[in-house]
UniProtKB/TrEMBL annotation:
Domain tRNA pseudouridylate synthase B C-terminal: 182-240
The keyword Isomerase appears for this protein: yes
GO MF, one example: RNA binding
Highest taxon in the source lineage: Bacteria
Protein name, UniProt field: tRNA pseudouridine synthase B
Gene encoding the protein: truB
Keywords: Isomerase, tRNA processing
Pfam families according to UniProt: TruB_C_2, TruB_N
InterPro entries: PsdUridine_synth_cat_dom_sf, PsdUridine_synth_N, tRNA_psdUridine_synth_TruB, TruB_C
Length: 309
């Protein structure tokens, strides 16, 4: 019997392919139908794209919810239909005054914290069962839901380059799930008084996964050709490292694997977080558990990972 297929592939997605294309490639490399990415990257964007393989697909939603870190670039002087460099110009205004580093830095700092965003028309958000980009491609505009996101940090990482009526600078942003960095670039421009768009973007981190953890499609393919593709997978435990951990006894492990409701271990009360990762003595994550709202002092499964049910 072959070893259980479970792990997360830390892919460095190249520009020029969709996240869906990347997942399809991963399915072929690992000869499995079970694969899913943890947060879409646009075709023009490169960067960290963790792909859950095999039984690790059970944790996709938790990794998608993790913080992300991006290296972005904003250009003031014109805005586009897609809010990035690939779209058609919709508004232009020459940057005809000096904008100092101090002014830019103040504006960037003002975005830190809770922030409202309206998703761009060219996005995969669904309205009335249809993706926004489908409306946009048909030349239609619909009312879009306002989303609340969090900017944990936003700092300038380059000098300000100003010429030919345009102004460009780079920044790094740490943000919550659901943040559109394209829209953030537009918002930065608006606060500085000019139409703007995102002129470049790279995802540097996604939850526990960083640029230095990642492999290219060529590296993965080379490993797959010699049957060593599994050596590139990072563990579910690595992926779930942000969750508090409790190690259970062998007796309790059996109950957990069967998805049982269990007494809340005493040490849980000292831990913060909605979910607790329960590990066995071999330091394998069995499941995510949460407090049972109907039974005081009890916990129930949130997500079985290495269960028997």
């Amino acid at each position: 019997m072959s070893e259980e297929l479970i792990g997360v592939l830390p892919l460095w997605k190249p520009r020029g392919i969709t996240s869906f294309d990347a997942v399809q490639r991963a399915r072929r490399f690992y000869k499995t139908k079970k694969a899913g990415h943890t947060g879409t990257l646009d075709p023009d964007v490169e960067g960290v794209l963790p792909i859950c393989i095999g039984k690790a697909t059970k944790i996709v939603e938790y990794l998608t919810a993790d913080k992300k870190v991006y290296a972005g670039e904003v250009t003031l002087g014109f805005s586009t239909t897609t809010e990035d460099a690939s779209g058609e110009v919709v508004d232009q205004k020459r940057v005809d005054r000096e904008i100092t580093e101090e002014e830019v830095d103040r504006v960037l700092a003002s975005f830190e914290g809770e922030l409202s965003q309206v998703p761009p028309m060219y996005s995969a958000i669904k309205v009335n069962g249809k993706k926004l980009y489908e409306y946009a491609r048909a030349g239609l505009s619909v009312e879009r839901p306002v989303r609340q996101i969090t900017i944990y940090s936003l700092t300038r990482t380059s000098d300000i380059r100003q010429e030919d009526g345009k102004l460009t600078f780079s920044y790094e942003v740490e943000c919550s799930k659901g943040t559109y960095v394209r829209t953030l670039s537009v918002q930065i421009g608006e606060k500085l008084g000019y139409p703007a768009h995102m002129s470049d973007l790279v995802r540097l981190e996604s939850g526990a996964f960083k640029k230095e953890d990642c492999f290219t499609l060529e590296q993965i393919e080379a490993k797959a050709e010699i049957g060593q593709e599994r050596s590139l997978l990072l563990s579910v435990e690595h992926a779930l490292s942000r969750f508090p951990v409790i190690t259970v006894s062998p007796e309790l492990e059996e109950k957990v694997r069967n998805g049982a409701i269990i007494d809340t271990p005493e040490e849980v009360n000292k831990l913060a977080g909605d979910f607790i990762a329960l590990y066995n003595q071999n330091q394998e994550c069995l499941a995510l558990y949460k407090h049972d709202p109907k039974r005081a002092g009890m916990m129930k499964p949130e997500k079985m990972i290495r269960g028997l049910v």
